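Worked example 3. Consider a protein that binds MTE.
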Amino acid sequence: MLSGVAAGSAGLGGAELAAASVGTSPLSAVSSWVIDLTPGWLKDAVIAFAGTGDKVVLLIVLIVVVTAVALLAGLLERVRPPWGAVAFGVLGAVAVVGVLTRSGAEASSPLPTVLGTALAVFLLRRFTGRLRGADRAPQAAAGSARRTVLIGAGAAAAIGVLAALGAQGLSASGRALEAARRAVRLPHPVRAAPPIPAGADLEVPGAASLITDNADFYRIDTAVFVPNLNPEQWRLRITGMVEQPIELGYADLLELPMQESRITLACVSNPVGGDLISTATWLGHPIRELLARARPLPRADMVLSRSSDGFTAGTPIEALTDDRDALLAVGMNGRPLPQEHGFPARLVVPGLYGYVSATKWVVELEVTRFDRARAYWTDRGWGERGPIKLASRIDVPRQGQAVGAGRVTVAGVAWRQRTGISAVQMSVDDGPWQEAELAAELSVDTWRQWRFDWDATPGSHTLRVRAVDADGREQVEAEQGVLPDGATGLHRVRVRVA
Ligand SMILES: Nc1nc2c(c(=O)[nH]1)N[C@H]1C(S)=C(S)[C@@H](COP(=O)(O)O)O[C@H]1N2
Ligand SMILES: [Mo]
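Given these inputs, the predicted complex is written out as structure tokens:
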């Protein structure tokens, strides 16, 4: 069994190391393959249990499966050769299929997997062959032969694990890419975001800051390993139902007039009171202008944006062409997009949940129709259109927090992108709704801070918040889960007052 695990570990480590310079990493390809194949209910269960640690869970499951196969291969090869080698061959073949199903796969993509499998088979046969030899040898020689195998296998296992761990950091393309990203000089916007007005940021300690730092911005995507897109090779194609397909590179994009917008991005999977929502100052070129150059056919009603790793989002074409200024973004809070947020370019569309609009690592905009094309999540039970729902959240005090009696500041955010917020109200222990103080509005596409001075009396209390949008519509109180098109219900927080 040790022979099997050692050979498997060395094979996997070798494959990951090889993938740092050529082809595709089998771990990354198989994990995204598994994500695509996982049924929606299971995915939801894993996310409910592990949250954004879902990918760590997946990697652990993969490693457990590989280890189990390796243990079995070791046993089999010892007693029934060559069935252990066959087991590794099957595992390798499955991984090759996984690699080849990824979008953009080439003939060289499975090379690391093939090399790793060959290494694993070679080491397995070598170790178990030695052990069989030891069975026939005189006792003293047998003991020393077994020790040699033990040391060799231990070393192979350790080197394999180190190689697999180090491969990501060693990846030449990864390091070169981060250097290229840092070297990017973003153009100045022709339309800069107005300065933040006084009174827009209430700066209540513990409450969400008005603009989220890049490092704190929520991250949601199906990518187990962040795609590495070299800006020199990156191309965006506008295809499908257009009179004039167009294509542009990163340098071309940076020459185009840029605009700055403060937009609050939200995930449809954000539960009531959740933190899958953040705000940044985005720098980008209006997608409307690019589409105008491509001249969409009048019957087209959707743009299917596609990322380099095969993710797709279906956005109503009017949301990309109307005056909301949907952006092909290159900058986030004054920096080139961080790799996890879509470098070199992504879409940011005010008013729509990310899964139908905010494609990161975008490489294609296919102009099409809702009755012809389906996007990644709409194929998995989520709504076809995803307008962001009116919602509000209490940031301070936190659930379960103990506070002193007397004046307590309750504060948070409310949002209804495209429309704006006209009021936020607070209710204590299901009592009457009272008006909270609203911060100044940055834009209708940005969340709005609010605060409420609460005269807290000793005991346990429940605070509830609700918002009213600028059209006078009240936030929906009926509770609905995030599936299929975003949660509704009021955020409530229980606090203890001493
Ligand atoms: N390529 C790609 N883009 C993607 C996704 C993805 O899985 N892959 N997820 C979308 C979803 S569901 C959301 S909510 C936003 C999140 O963007 P962020 O990670 O920058 O916050 O990205 C969108 N863009
Ligand atoms: Mo999302």
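Take a moment to read the result before moving on. The domain at 391-497 is CATH 2.60.40.650 (Immunoglobulin-like). The chain has eleven helices and 19 strands.
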